[in-house]
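Example (one chain per record):
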Amino acid sequence: MVNSYSLLAELESFLQRRGVEVDRLTAEPMIKLMIDWFRLAPIDLVESASSADALVYRTGGWSEGCATGFKLSLLRRIIERSASGSDTEWFAGITLMFEPSGYADLAPFKAVSSDWKSIDGFLQAIESSPAFRVLATAVPMGVMVESGGLR
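Predicted structure:
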């Protein structure tokens, strides 16, 4: 059964096998790493044909209290549909956080790919996004491996 903990464990295991030091990632290698995880590591925890496996790329500013920043994330999202027809979304991925001062003009952006066969088009959408072009090699102020779920 898939849940946020099992999906996070799959990501952490993949990172460990690759010898990745997460806190040293920049956008370019992070994106390639997450795409490799999607392509090369099918999630065996998905039990039903009504489940969906996708990558979600998101960029945008964030604010929490007096803290602000700019986030660039690539998350793997598993959607499970129950017999009653309700969906549960589980995700795990990597988020890079940047100092917001130089990125206030970058508009939020989101792209989703559920087909590993056409992942090259998805990668092209990421690489042509304004945030990626600016932040591809920039050093983030923080890196998070994150997971969660929504019903």
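Caption: The mean pLDDT is 88.
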